[in-house]
Amino acid sequence: MLSVNELLGSGGRRNSVDGPIVISTWDFGVAANRAAWAVLEKGGHALDAVEAGVRIAESDLNNHTVGKGGYPDRDGHVTLDACIMDDRGNCGAVAALEHIAHPVSVARKVMEETPHVMLVGGGALQFALERGFEKEDLLTPEAAAAWKKWLQQKKYQPVINIENRSFTTEKLPGNQYNHDTIGMLARDAAGRLSGACTTSGLAFKMHGRVGDSPIIGAGLYVDDEIGAATATGVGEEVIRTVGSFLVVELMRQGYSPEDACREAVNRIIRKKPETAKAIQVGFLALNKRGEYGAYALQSGFSYAVCNQNRQDLLVRGKSVF
Length: 321
Hints:
Elements: E1 15-16, E2 21-25, H1 29-40, H2 46-59, E3 80-85, E4 91-97, H3 103-113, E5 118-120, H4 121-130, H5 141-153, H6 162-166, E6 182-187, E7 193-199, E8 220-223, E9 227-233, H7 235-241, H8 243-252, H9 257-271, H10 273-276, E10 281-287, E11 291-296, E12 302-307, E13 313-316, E14 318-319
Parallel strand pairs: 4-5, 11-14
Antiparallel strand pairs: 1-11, 2-6, 2-12, 3-4, 3-7, 6-7, 8-9, 9-10, 10-11, 12-13
Helix pairs in contact: 1-2, 2-3, 8-9
C-alpha cells in the first residue's frame, strides 16, 4: 500500500472506471475501501459496501478523528456523528451519539426502522440500545491522555472553534492531522449509488457541537440520477454552503466531479475569504458514469480509489491554496 508520502498524481478532471467503484476521503480510506470492495466484488449493494467500509475507520483505535479512537470534546465526552444514504433517496443519521462504536450502523437503522432521518444525543443512544447495540466506554487511554494534556494548557471558554485553533497550533484545523471525517461513495455492479459519512468531530470541540458529517446535503448527498458527494474538514463552512448538495447540483448542470468540487470550494472562499485561508475543507464526488474527482481549500487532502483494476490507489487532491 502506498503511504501518504508516496501519493500518486493529482488525477485528471475526467477520471472514470467501468463497473463497481468505491472512493473515500484521506489515506485511511484505502483500508476502508478494501472492506467495501469485498461487498462490491460479490455483486453486493452499494449501501452495504459503504457501511462495511466506514466501519473499518470507526474501529481503528489509531484514528483519532473517527469512531472509538476519536478525541473527546473539551468536557471529555466522545460524541460521534454519522449518516448514510442510498440510491432511492432514503437516508438516516445520528448526531452527538455517545457510547456506541459504530454510529453509521445506527444511522442505517434510523433510516430503515423509523419514520425519521436523524436522532441525536440521548435519544439516539436509547434507540441504539433498543436495537441491540453494545454500550461501551469510547474514551481510549490515548485519547484521555491527549485530553488531559490539553486541559493543562487551555481554558474552558465558549468561543467557537477555539479548541481546534489552539490544539496543535502548527497545523491547520481540519487538515490531514485533524480532519475529523471519513466520507465514502460507491457505485455497485447494478449502477446504484450510495454514500456514508462518519466522524468523532473536531478534537476538543464544545460539548454538543455537531458539524456537517451527519447532515444530509452538507456532509453527504446522493442522487442516483446524477451522482454523489461527500465533504471533509471544518464542518461549519460546509453546512453554510450545503456543500455536498451543491456539488451534486453542479454535476447536474454538466460540471465534472472535480470541477463541481472546485466550484463548491470557491463558494466558501467567496463567502468568507479570510476564514478560508485558515481552515481546510475538501469535497469528493462520484457521478453516475463512474467519473470521480475532488478539490480542497488547502494542499494535503488525499482520497482513496478502489475498483476492479486496483484496490490501493491513493490520489493527491487538488487545492486552491
